[in-house]
Amino acid sequence: MREMFFTQAVDDALAQAMADDRRIVVFGEDIPLLRRDLLVRFGPKRVLGAPISESAFVGAGVAAAMAGLRPVVELYMVDFVGVAMDALLNHAAKLEAFSGGKWKAPVVVRAPCSGGYGDGGQHEQSLWGWLAHIPGLTVIVPSTPADAGGLMLASLQHDGPTVFLEPKLLSESCLKFLGSGGRKTVQYDVPAEGARGEVPQKWEPLPIGKAVLRRTGKDVSIVSVGVGVHRALGAVEVLQKEGISADVLDLRTVAPLDMRSLCETAGKTGHVLVVDEDYEGFGLSGEVAAILAEKGVSVKYRRVCTRGTIPYARNLEDEALPNIGRICASAKELVGTSSK
Amino acid sequence: MPADLWVLYPLMLRSRLFEEAIAKLWHEGLISGEMHLGTGEEAIIAGVVSQLRDGDAMALDHRGTAALLMRGLDPVPALRELLGRPDGLCGGMGGHMHLLSKEHLAASSGIVGAAGPTAAGFALAANHLRPGSISVAFFGDGAMNQGMLMESMNLAAAWKLPVLFVCKDDGWAITTKSEEMTGGSLNERARGLGVPPVEADGLDVAAVWQAAEGAIQRARSGQGPTFLHLRCVHLEGHFLGFQLIRAVREPLKEMPEVAFPLTKSFLHPSGAGLGERLAGVKAVMAKILATLRDPRRDPANDPVKRARAGLQSDAARLQELEDRIEKDVGLALEAALAETSQ
Predict the structure, then answer these.
(1) Fold of B5-235+302-337
(2) Percent of chain B with pLDDT over 90
(3) What is the spatial distance between Cα B78 and Cα A252, in angstroms, rounded to a whole number?
(4) What is the rounded distance in angstroms from the CA atom of residue B322 to the CA atom of residue B333?
(5) Per-residue pLDDT tens digits for B236-245
(6) Residue A281: CB partners within 8 Å, gap ≥ 6?
(7) What is the pLDDT of residues A51-103, one digit of tens each?
(8) Average pLDDT score over residue span B201-205
(9) Which alpha helices (DSSP H) does A192-277 contain, by range?
(10) How far is it, in rounded angstroms, from Cα B219 to Cα B200?
(11) Are strands A300-306 and A24-28 parallel, antiparallel or unpaired?
(12) Residue A39 is nearest to which of B113, B143, B283, comparing CB atoms?
């Protein structure tokens, strides 16, 4: 076993895939600097910088995939997908359906996401719910280095368009580049197990659409992705002391969503708490509730999500994003509500 | 009417002192995330903003603090906003990339190129509601490759909107040399979209002032938009803690953690042939060298020093002026950092 940082793991899996598959090319803004280790190994024909033209280079990535390449297109942050949304919404996501299933675009859009370091509401959004809403897109949100590498490999082997999101709070390089800027005077609440961990000697693809239980308990099922998983695990430590034990289900992919694992844990505990750093309304948390209702799994339900625009001020931001305090309060309320 | 350096230099110096104070607060950890300063673009901002009047609007990028201060924004709530305080300009919700002042019709955005559509919309509203008023879009050369900005220039030309498209060209798009990622010439591009270009030395506030004067007159009299192309040097790079500048300023501290994985990756048995790998190494080296040769710390490229040089003939007046500004900025800083009463 090797140990790696989160983004290091993604890059390592990507490098392994690039060595095996010459169709993989990587491009985006500042890529010669950000992926310099790939540049010196695979050369400037496969690792390219792009102008600040997201609509052009994401769209080009989709079409290059249609024509046989396996592009990894990078956005500086998922917030900037707004500029390039048409390429995903109306093209990448529609191709398979429009072609009667005959043509697919195996493009990977890789983007840092989410907050926790004081960059304000235009640079810290999660947006996986918004992306997963579009039929035809696969949306992946890993929470550990091992999952990040394995799911990157899976994304590269997947035949359709994939959005691969990297929570910035877990990414050593993102946090240094966009957050601290080399300062020692700022600290961020980085979940240690998410930021660095054991990874396999050789990467194998992980199944897309398969959740994993990070903790097992009996009273409540906490369902989450990304940094939320680690906040949930932190909350479980606190709840345990109060006699509440929890399943923590890490969905790992938002679309497709692992309904079976969700229904299993929900059926077991009868209490579901969704922890979602993405916006509360019309998103992942509501989807979880809808699936359970449709499948006839009767549960008590709560959610801890981001409700409004993410504040710039660090103290306000910490309150706005799901935190251990809010998760514990909701879990207790949830378990309490069912006591007869 | 020629530009009056006695009016422009104080605006520039005040902005510089504020932004240097902001840099200090950032280094002390009182500002958490990214911080993009406008140090180095003061001549451009002062030369344009000093000619705006009530009813004019500004569409700002992620580097808008200087423009707002020069437009007359109270520095105390502005600084408090950067510190994320509830008594900040936007209640601590926006931060430096999203400074908004409805009173000044000034809106910032952290999305590159967003100043284009915003300025077009402000100008449309001006035509209907405030005839004779104009809007200004401030953006960098990197934004010139963003579709929404190009579309906005065409829109402004088609609708004859009173917009000044002000390109603060420092030659860099974040960490990428703009020339490597830009086809053709920016001026020709603007001309092709029906927006006449005017080029001036962005380090010379009097030259900027003069170029802007003509463009503003054109806009106010209903003759449509102008593209002001002004070169400058960002003294701190794209943002504070800019990786390339750190590598140059403190190579021993910063380089090993870059060089070790780089070498390991270059020597990895699987990958491209040697030629391609060398091309990759050359591309990385070129980036570091470009930064080394970058004229950021050459005093000749500091617009504040350039403006000051024009005033040295009256040393006593200059001294008095600078003392006053230093004191003002100090007082504002003290007030901003003071705890609120209640």
Answers:
(1) Rossmann fold (3.40.50)
(2) 76
(3) 41
(4) 16
(5) 888 888 877 7
(6) none
(7) 999 999 999 999 999 999 999 999 999 999 999 999 999 999 999 999 999 99
(8) 98
(9) 192-195, 227-241, 259-269
(10) 18
(11) unpaired
(12) B283
Rg (CA), chain B: 21
Six-digit token pair at B222?
Answer: 């209903």
- Name residues whose C-beta falls within 8 Å of residue A297's C-beta, 6 or more positions apart in sequence: A263, A266, A267
Is residue A339 over pLDDT 60?
no
As given in the structure block, the two tokens for residue B21 are 């104070």
pTM metric for this prediction: 0.95
Which residues in chain A are closer than 8 Å to B33, comparing Cβ atoms?
Answer: 117-120, 123, 178-179
In whole angstroms, give the CA distance from residue B91 to residue B80.
Answer: 9
Q: What three-state secondary structure class fits A253?
A: strand
Which of B24, B26, B28, B32 is the mutation pick for testing A, counting most A CBs within 10 A? B32
Q: Say how far apart CA B178 and CA B142 lie, in whole Å.
A: 6
What six digits make up the tokens of A278?
């993405």
* Residue B285 burial (10 A CB sphere; 0-12, 13-18, 19+): exposed
Q: Give me the DSSP letters along A22-78.
A: TTEEEEETTHHHHTHHHHHHH-TTTEEE--S-HHHHHHHHHHHHHTT-EEEEE-SSG
pLDDT tens digits for A210-245?
Answer: 999 999 999 999 999 999 999 999 999 999 999 999
> Is-same-fold flag (A2-199; A212-335)?
yes
The two structure tokens encoding residue B316: 């006593």
Reduced to 3 states (helix: H, G, I; strand: E, B; else coil), residue A3 is strand
Q: Say which CATH topology domain A212-335 has.
A: Rossmann fold (3.40.50)
Angle at B16 between CA B11 and CA B19, to 5 degrees: 125
For domain A2-199, say whether CATH 3.40.50.970 is its number. Answer: yes
Shortest CA gap A126–chain B (Å): 16
Residue in B33, B142, B242 nearest the CB of A52: B142
**Domains of chain A: which residue ranges?**
2-199, 212-335
Rounded Cα gap, residues A13 and A40, in angstroms: 16
**Spatial CB neighbours of A137, under 8 Å, sequence gap ≥ 6:** A88, A92, A93, A131, A160, A161, A162, A163, A255
ipTM comes to: 0.94
Q: How far apart are CA A250 and CA A260, in angstroms?
A: 13
> Residue written as tokens 């808008």?
B64
Environment class of B293 (CB within 10 Å of its CB; exposed 0-12, middle 13-18, buried 19+): exposed
pLDDT at B105: 98
Chain A CB contacts of B260 under 8 Å are none
* Residue A3 β-bridge partners: A198
The pLDDT score that the predictor gives to residue A211 is 98
What rounded mean pLDDT belongs to chain B?
A: 92
Contacts of residue B115, defined as CB under 8 A and 6 or more positions apart, other chains included, come to B59, B60, B61, B109, B137, B138, B139, B143, B149
Q: How many angstroms separate the CA of residue B313 from the nearest CA in chain A?
A: 41
CA distance B271 to B263: 13
Smallest Cα distance from A10 to chain B, Å: 14
Distance (Å, whole) CA A22 – CA B210: 55
What Cα–Cα distance (Å) separates residue B154 from each residue in A274, B109, B151, B218? 47, 21, 5, 17
Mark yes or no for CB contact B287/A117 under 8 Å. no
